[in-house]
Amino acid sequence: MEQELLHGININHYLGLAAALFSIGALGVLFRRNAIIMFMCVELMLNAVNLTLVAFSKIWGQTDAQVFVFFIMVVAAAEVAVGLSILMMLYRNMHTTDTNVLNLLKN
Amino acid sequence: MLTNYAFWFLSFLAVFSALGMIFSRNPVFSVLSLIVTFFSIAGHYFLLNAQFLAAVHIIVYAGAIMVLFLYVIMMLNLNTLEEEKKSLFAKISAVATAGILMLVMVGAMVKADEITVVQQASNIDVGLTKNLGMALYNDFLLPFELSSVLFLGAMVGSVYLSKKELA
Predict the structure, then answer these.
(1) Cβ atoms within 10 A of the Cβ of B164, count?
(2) Is the distance from CB of B96 to CB of A43 less than 8 angstroms?
(3) Is any Cβ of chain B less than 8 angstroms from the Cβ of A89?
(4) Could you give the CA distance from residue B43 to residue A100 in angstroms, rounded to a whole number?
(5) Which of A33, B45, B53, B119 has its CA 20 to 30 Å from the CA of residue B62?
(6) B18, A6: Cβ pair inside 8 Å?
(7) B166: phi > 0 → left, psi -120 to 50 → alpha, else beta; which?
(8) Which residues 6+ apart lie within 8 Å of A61 measured at CB?
(9) Single pTM value for the model
(10) Which residues touch A3 (CB under 8 Å, ≥6 apart)?
(11) Pairwise CB contact (< 8 Å): B86 & A88
């Protein structure tokens, strides 16, 4: 059964867009060495997941998925507050945010 | 018909500004590109009739989270810092890994519109504030209250971590 969300746009388009955004986020985490940029890429991956949830919420006509998106935003905000203060403290002590230098827990 | 074009426009805007975020050398430009991505995702929410989420998304992400990132980058003065590049092998393997990840996800989702059997789109305005509020305060009251405890914990944690002299 073909279910169109918009004119000529079905769920596959939204899933493909979310997959692209998620992969770009993963690429950023693997590609960059600056911890702040990696952190922003994690936010992008969370948003890709949110997009699929909202698309499915529209297709099923249910509010539950949108409430989940709301809670994901809540957790993301809390995570950013704590993570950025950790990065600030790291920068204060080590004078860098490069993940190749911040390897005290390696080995 | 117009929404169709809006979908493609917002999609390309989101993807290209996300690529601009990860490939730009200047962290401030990265933050601004990510803000553009977030705005286009908010536009997608509008197209999907999720007005409340679109507004909350703009307020929380563009208004709070990205401003926090911008503050930290400007306070640390990172845009003058020259980032060393990764080795070529690490870059190639990162691109290959992300490409394979996307291939797997698209391959898993390619028949999604046939599997997703939908009775009918019952309620057209699920994304309105009234319906979301009813769901949030009736069915999800306990998680809602717990999230305030989470915020309190995050606030205490970040204030403690940013104190000047830690024991």
Answers:
(1) 5
(2) no
(3) yes
(4) 37
(5) A33
(6) no
(7) beta
(8) B120, B121, B122, B123, B124, B126
(9) 0.89
(10) A10, A11, A59, B113, B116, B118, B121
(11) no
**pLDDT at residue B61 above 60?**
yes
A46 and chain B in contact, CB less than 8 A: no
Three-state SS for A1?
coil
A13-49 tens-digit pLDDT: 899 999 999 999 999 999 888 889 999 999 999 999 9
Question: Rounded to whole angstroms, how far apart are CA atoms A78 and A97?
Answer: 21
**Which tokens go with A96?**
């860098």
Q: Judge whether B110 is closer than 8 Å to chain A, CB to CB.
A: yes
- Contact assignment for A44 to B34 by CB distance below 8 Å: yes
Number of separate helices (H) and strands (E) present in chain A: 3, 2
The answer to whether B64 and A79 have CB atoms below 8 angstroms apart is: no
Q: Does the beta carbon of B35 lie under 8 angstroms from any beta carbon of chain A?
A: no
Residue A80 · residue B68 · CB < 8 Å? yes
pLDDT > 70? residue B83: no
Phi/psi for A98 (5° steps) reads -80, 125
| Band of pLDDT at residue B87, cut at 50, 70 and 90 | confident
B11/chain A closest Cα distance in angstroms = 7
Supply the ipTM of this predicted assembly: 0.90
Quote the pLDDT of residue A1: 42
